[in-house]
């Protein structure tokens, strides 16, 4: 039987298991990437594992999320990251050089290789045939030490693209259409493989917009076959020799097929405050807009900013509104500047920023209270922009630029008629010629020992799993709680990312401000949540901080993939409960796991009995592989890996 492209790449990297969907597999990792907010912990964990040097073919550390220096903490973190990259043999991308996914795509992403990254949008280079997966930092540290990465074998779904995009529609509309149809849970346990004539018609930057936002579908990864367009892109980046032709077999069997005719797509927009809340732009036209942001790892490339720049050239953005363009990389920013586009945008009233994630996680350019902000980003979870009462819409650069000119949401086709605008289309440069001054290659490292400032703390360690788990339900939460709810990524909080003792004070503060203090007072406890708990980023702090506060189990109707792995990695037992149990259990209830927990976890027991308020009982299920059970029993992945290294 023929293989899908995903199966081919996984077969080439398989070290444990077979390719049965739903079963755990271990794979070898060729490349790892880290960004600044998760990277400090990766390196502290790497240090705690007593490892000498990165064993992967390539490791790259980026500084992109928090590039503004408000006080010494971020600067200290960046210096620590540079020193760690130098000490352990990783490339280092300086603050301002751009967003990890953009810079990685430009410089290192390679077809057929595996990439593991401590950021949930790591699947971005799937657009050039790299199988890339987001994971928690500890998984990255272990992979960088030469260990396998373990993941549930995903189902592979074929997304067949027919036709060609009409003028004014873009790759963003393809992925918004996927979100409209499949929702933020539709990709859980799946890899989406894009094929067909429509896929062939898209350039690599368009493909990576789609693979980037596969994360919003909850997918393990997204992938395109490679072809002349891939080769051409790599050649323009000066890396043509890295091209490898990769296709699925003609008789490959997919778990499912989704068909999208690109010709049918009109400009779409995701309304507040979920990426799957998608409607045609015309449905919300007329809504007053106060802020427009073009950038991010989804639409921050040269090819993304250029259409917006072409549209605003010789025009003026509405006076009541601020339009900000933050290129995704310095390569993009430098090229736009050299070609005069930056000046054109500035003349039109656009504020051009440094290359950073920044506003995507509420760091800078926070919208005004209760106002509408249109963004070309990938997430619009409530409060992520840095203010609770935000109204963030997600759209393509074309739709964003149209709104900036009109001052309200408008379908760019309608504005084009009004202003006589030409459809900007998509245009690749003959050659990507940004300078590399902000990349410090491993071989040119300037540090050979770790530099730790006072804000760099210790990696907390959990005791091995005990036989008893009981405590108060410290918080009952709803469906779709994100990692942003658990540990917000705003600048006032993120600056403590390397200091778990301080950071844990903010745990779940967006859900209940008293939570951290109550957890500290109680010393132990459990959390209860609805469906899809922990969706969003790969932030392992969202498991590490609850662990630090003494949370021993999370009872949820379902868990997001990366967060569930992070719960195991930090010794928190993730138990699945049914709808009835969820409805019955209240915040403040005392929950006791009746079974001898350590023994039950070790012996492979799946069903656990929970007793609530000494009054009623229910069943909770532990869906865990043998390996995950070993991790839980040891108190987490770090203690287990250390034990193994010591021969224990
Ligand atoms: Fe950065 Fe936002 Fe992407 S935080 S990595 S631009 S999702």
Helix content: 25-40%
Instruction: Tell me the radius of gyration.
Output: 24 Å
Summed up, the domain count is 3
Cα-to-Cα separation, first versus last residue: 42 Å
- Average pLDDT level: 96
CATH-defined fold name of the largest domain: Aconitase, domain 3
The assigned CATH architecture of the largest domain is 2-Layer Sandwich
**Main sheet summary:** 7 strands, mixed
The CATH class of the largest domain is: Alpha Beta
Molecules bound to protein: FE3-S4 cluster
- CATH superfamily label of the largest domain: Aconitase, domain 3
Total helices: the number is 25
Poorly predicted runs: none
Task: Supply the helix-strand structural class.
Answer: alpha/beta
- Let me know the number of strands: 27
User: Which strand order does the major sheet show?
Assistant: 24-23-22-21-25-26-27
Shape: globular
Strand content range: 15-25%
What can be said about this structure in brief?
This protein has 648 residues and is α/β, with parallel strands linked by helices. The strands form six sheets. It has a seven-stranded mixed sheet.
Strands, helices and their partners?
Layout: H1 5-13, E1 14-16, E2 24-27, E3 31-34, H2 36-48, E4 58-62, H3 72-88, E5 91-93, H4 100-107, E6 114-117, E7 131-134, H5 137-144, E8 149-152, E9 155-162, H6 171-182, E10 190-195, H7 197-201, H8 204-212, E11 221-224, H9 228-236, E12 256-261, E13 268-270, E14 278-280, E15 291-295, H10 296-299, H11 302-312, E16 322-326, H12 330-338, H13 341-347, E17 350-352, E18 372-375, E19 391-394, H14 397-406, H15 412-419, E20 439-440, E21 470-476, H16 483-486, H17 491-494, H18 500-503, H19 515-522, E22 525-529, H20 541-548, E23 551-556, H21 561-569, E24 573-576, H22 579-584, E25 590-593, H23 597-603, E26 607-612, E27 616-621, H24 626-634, H25 637-645
Parallel strand pairs: 3-4, 3-6, 4-5, 6-7, 9-10, 9-12, 10-11, 15-16, 15-18, 16-17, 18-19, 21-22, 22-23, 23-24
Antiparallel strand pairs: 1-2, 2-8, 5-20, 13-14, 21-25, 25-26, 26-27
Helix pairs in contact: 2-3, 2-5, 6-8, 11-12, 11-13, 11-14, 24-25
FE3-S4 cluster is lined by residues 65, 99, 101, 119, 121, 296-297, 357, 360-361, 377-378.
């Amino acid at each position: 039987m023929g293989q899908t492209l995903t199966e081919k790449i996984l077969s080439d990297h398989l070290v444990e298991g077979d390719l049965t969907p739903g079963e755990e597999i271990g794979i070898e990792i060729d490349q790892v990437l880290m960004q600044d907010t998760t990277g400090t912990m990766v390196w502290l964990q790497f240090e705690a594992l007593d490892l000498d040097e990165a064993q992967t073919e390539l490791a790259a550390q980026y500084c992109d999320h928090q590039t503004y220096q408000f006080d010494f903490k971020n600067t200290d973190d960046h210096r620590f990251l540079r020193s760690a990259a130098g000490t352990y043999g990783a490339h280092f991308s300086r603050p301002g050089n751009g967003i990890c996914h953009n810079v990685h795509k430009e410089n290192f992403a390679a077809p057929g290789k595996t990439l593991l990254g401590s950021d949930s949008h790591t699947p971005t280079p799937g657009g050039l045939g790299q199988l890339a997966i987001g994971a928690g930092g500890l998984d990255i540290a272990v992979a960088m030490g030469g260990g396998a990465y373990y993941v549930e074998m995903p189902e592979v779904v074929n997304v067949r693209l027919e036709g060609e995009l009409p003028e004014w529609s873009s790759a963003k509309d393809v992925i918004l259409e996927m979100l409209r149809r499949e929702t933020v849970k539709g990709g859980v346990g799946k890899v989406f493989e894009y094929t067909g004539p429509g896929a062939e018609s898209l350039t690599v930057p368009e493909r990576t917009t789609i693979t980037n936002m596969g994360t919003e579908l909850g997918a393990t990864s997204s992938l395109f076959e490679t072809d002349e367009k891939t080769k051409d892109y790599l050649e323009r980046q000066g890396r043509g020799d890295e091209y490898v032709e990769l296709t699925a077999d003609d008789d490959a069997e997919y778990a499912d097929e989704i068909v999208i005719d690109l010709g049918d797509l009109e400009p779409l927009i995701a309304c507040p405050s979920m990426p799957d809340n998608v409607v045609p732009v015309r449905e919300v036209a007329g809504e007053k807009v106060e802020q427009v942001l073009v950038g991010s790892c989804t639409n921050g490339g040269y090819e993304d900013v250029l259409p917006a720049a072409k549209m605003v050239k010789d025009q003026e953005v509405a006076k009541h509104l601020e339009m900000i363009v933050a290129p995704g990389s310095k390569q993009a920013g430098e090229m736009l500047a050299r070609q005069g586009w930056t000046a054109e945008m500035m003349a039109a009233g656009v504020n051009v920023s440094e290359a950073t994630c920044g506003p995507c996680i509420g760091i800078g350019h926070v919208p005004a209270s209760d106002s509408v902000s249109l963004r070309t980003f990938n997430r619009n979870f409530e409060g992520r922009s840095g203010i609770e009462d935000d109204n963030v819409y997600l759209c393509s650069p074309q739709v964003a630029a149209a709104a900036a000119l009109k001052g309200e949401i408008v379908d760019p086709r309608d504005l084009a008629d009004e202003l006589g605008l030409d459809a900007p289309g998509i245009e690749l440069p003959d050659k990507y010629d940004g300078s590399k001054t902000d990349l410090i290659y491993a071989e040119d490292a300037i540090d050979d020992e770790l530099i730790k400032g006072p804000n760099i703390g210790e990696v907390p360690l959990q005791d091995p799993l005990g036989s008893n788990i009981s405590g108060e339900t410290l918080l009952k939460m709803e469906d779709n709680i994100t990692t942003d709810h658990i540990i917000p990524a705003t600048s006032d909080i993120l600056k403590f990312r390397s200091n778990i003792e301080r950071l844990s004070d903010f745990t779940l503060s967006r859900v209940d401000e008293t939570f951290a203090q109550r957890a500290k007072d109680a010393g132990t406890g459990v959390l209860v949540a609805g469906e899809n708990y922990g969706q969003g980023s790969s932030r392992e702090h969202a498991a590490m901080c609850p662990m630090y506060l003494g949370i021993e189990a999370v009872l949820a109707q379902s868990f997001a993939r990366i967060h569930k792995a992070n719960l195991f990695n930090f010794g928190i037992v993730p138990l699945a409960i049914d709808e009835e149990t969820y409805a019955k259990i209240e915040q403040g209830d005392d929950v006791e796991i009746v079974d001898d927990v350590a023994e039950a976890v070790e012996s492979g027991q799946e069903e656990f009995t929970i007793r609530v308020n000494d009054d009623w009982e229910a069943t909770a299920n532990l869906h865990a592989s043998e390996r995950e059970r070993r991790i839980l029993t040891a108190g987490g992945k770090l203690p287990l890996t250390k034990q193994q290294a010591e021969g224990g």
